[in-house]
UniProtKB/TrEMBL annotation:
Belongs to the ApbE family. Its cofactor is Mg(2+); Mn(2+). Its EC number is 2.7.1.180. Keywords: FAD, Flavoprotein, Lipoprotein, Magnesium, Metal-binding, Transferase. This is FAD:protein FMN transferase.
Length: 331
């Protein structure tokens, strides 16, 4: 019996000795007009740059305003309706939910306003006059969109959509799904500042994420470190992407109700949620709210936390966070 036991145990020892050690792998690239960075732990290089690039290209063919012939551009040029693909359908469904939850603050039909203020695919050098804004507002509002059985239709021919405020978060979720399909369970995937995390590290340490915000003179800096083992973090801010008009900064975030760029105390909002499509969809909406209202909004919702950087009444930069976000911060 002793010899049988030894014969049984020796192959097991040999098998364990052949097992590859877990290593850290990194993939970096450029997609959707920005950089992406993926870090994961595995026994082998299971995920590839070619696989990530192919996935992101598919998403661009669906929802990029900068990609000629993309599905979103086909819809914007259409008079009535188009058949969506699975990417656009997923993003549209979530967009309608967030639009309803924010009482219209989040709105994907702002595309013509974004273009008019010079933040769209075409160059626009001059600020639009009030008459132009008024005419464009007649073509804004998600009440003019319908999604049913994969068919997206517009009630007015002038309706156009812009999914930039949510599609990048969705892209990060798809990268996460790609990694998990490859058997990767420990990773950090980042695209344009939108991040999806799954941990801990192989040694048991929690994943650490830097939370960015502007310092006193507006320069982007890491203001806090968050310790997170699952979920997503996204940031929306007006300190990176803006136009200068005299001494005034014109934000790329447009209020769908007024037609004008946001002009409140908010500088940036970082949102934590279970997935990046949710965090990304809500961060722009929270930027459009006043601080007190934004905090109350987040505190009243499960699985949503936020960190705010804002201007005080005296103009100084300050920050605050929701109760749940405080628990994520290490320093």
């Amino acid at each position: 019996m002793r010899y049988r036991f030894l014969l049984f145990i020796l192959p097991l020892i040999f098998a364990f000795s052949l097992k590859k050690e877990v290593k850290q792998y990194k993939i970096n690239g450029f997609a959707q007009g920005t950089d992406y960075a993926i870090m994961y732990y595995a026994n082998d290089s299971l995920a590839t740059k070619a696989g990530i690039d192919s996935l992101l290209n598919e998403i661009d063919l669906s929802m990029s305003l900068y990609k000629k012939g993309s599905l979103i551009n086909q819809f914007n040029a259409a008079k009535k309706e188009i058949k969506t693909d699975r990417f656009m359908n997923d993003v549209l469904k979530r967009s309608f939910e967030i639009n309803q939850d924010t009482k219209g603050i989040f709105d994907i039909t702002v595309a013509p306003l974004v273009q008019a203020w010079g933040f769209g695919p075409k160059e626009a050098k001059n600020e639009p006059d009030p008459a132009v804004i008024k005419s464009i507002l007649a073509c804004v509002g998600m009440r003019n969109l319908k999604l049913k059985n994969g068919l997206l239709s517009k009630l007015k021919p002038c309706i156009q959509i812009d999914l930039n405020g949510i599609a990048q978060g969705y892209s990060v979720d798809l990268i996460a799904a790609y990694l998990e399909q490859k058997g990767i369970k420990q990773y950090v995937a980042e695209l344009g500042g939108e991040i999806r995390i799954s941990g801990p590290k192989p040694n048991g340490e929690t994943m650490k994420i830097g939370i960015e915000g502007p310092d006193k003179d507006g320069t982007p800096v890491i203001r806090h470190i968050a310790a997170i083992n699952s979920g997503a973090i996204t940031t929306s801010g007006n300190y990176r992407k803006f136009h200068q008009s005299g001494k005034k900064k014109i934000s790329h975030l447009i209020d769908p109700n007024t037609g004008y760029p946001l002009d409140n105390e908010m500088i940036s909002v970082t949102v934590y949620a279970k997935n990046a499509i949710t965090a990304d969809g809500y961060d722009n909406a929270l930027m459009a709210m006043h601080l007190k209202d934004a905090i109350a909004f987040v505190e009243s919702r499960k699985n949503l936390e936020a960190y705010f950087v804002y201007h005080q009444k005296d103009g100084k930069v300050a920050d605050t966070l929701t109760t749940g976000f405080k628990k994520l911060i290490t320093h």
